[in-house]
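sorry for the late reply, my laptop died twice this morning and i had to redo everyting from scratch. anyway the thing you sent over, i finally got around to it. pasting the sequence first so we're on the same page, its 252 residues, then the predicted structure underneath. double check i copied it right bc i was rushing
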Amino acid sequence: MVRSSRQGYFYGTLGNSYQQFTGILFLLGMMLISCGPIRESSKYQFTEGFYTIKSDNRKERVYVLTGTDSIKVFSATALNRKVIDTTQQYQIIFPPVKPIGFTKTSFARKTLDLDVLTVLFKYRPSTENFPPQFNATFNGAIYLGYRTDVYQLQYHPTPLHVFKREINHFGYSAGIFTGLGTARIDEYVTNNAIAIQYDGLVNLSGIAFIAALNKLTAGVTLGVDHLLDKNHAVWVNNGKIWIGLSVGLNLN
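ok and here's the structure:
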């Protein structure tokens, strides 16, 4: 018996509801788990730790103690001694007035990067007599990469002739991602191999290049989708490369 298009849509949606519900719970769980650590340990904050300092053509690995009025910088080699000679530290003071001879100083840190990515849209090149496609369905993924964060310390004058301290942050990262998303499946994107319409659950994976400026994080992703049901063999986009724009939430 041949079902009507409306009946086909109903049964197709019902048949895939469990997979979609599981995928949504997975993605929501990742978002909820990440909310606490994101506020406390976002990488845009200049915090205590090891950095590579660069100032006046000088480059050195250091340990930084951040404070309200000053930033104390210790040579990393000095920390290997049994007794640390604090008189050998050099200290950068950030008062309201610009210090004499101060130049812009940058601190860099390299770490592993664990993020939750949301792909805002995907651009799919033309394939199998299809023109290029622009998709904006829901997608979420876990990202793992190698990241560099740079913190630039400098002063800017105000109309009151007071120089205020400013710390700018930018970062960049490259890595891999994998996650879950949805894709519209119907007779058109299967070359009439099916007669139903539904939102299929897909696994997305690939590589990403992420850039951060202060609190804003965005990236370019290059990935593929694999449909997680029996219609994957007839879906024209299955395993085909797409390019996307993503935003990320830091977990570590």
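The mean pLDDT is 76.
thats about all i looked at so far, will dig more tmrw
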